Amino acid sequence: MAQQQNTPFQLPARLPFGPDIIDRDIFELIGLKDVNDKDRSEMMVVIMDTIYNRVIARILDNFNTEEQKELEKALEKKDLKKVNEMLASKELPDYMSLLAEETVLYKVQLASMFAPKAA
Known about the structure:
Mean pLDDT: 82
Distance between the termini: 44 Å
Shape: elongated
Structural class: mainly alpha
Oligomer: single chain
């Protein structure tokens, strides 16, 4: 696993939504509120995978390249003791907090991409 540099998402100057974005349905925000259940489920898998990958990338940013390789080996071997020791050795943000942050950031990013453009 190579060291990855995350480029933060830049929000547009004016957003077409407010703080209520947290409670709004993502499919409504991107103009797909009437999408069928099958497509909705498939899209949710992609959305969840993306958010998961963003969380993992933020966690891995706390490890140097050698540590990342060691963590990857422990994960491949399913050595949860080693994985937990490595994670505990770092001052990492709470996983649920990271998950919540990345979920909101991705929701804002998607909503910004699909928002109607101002004339």
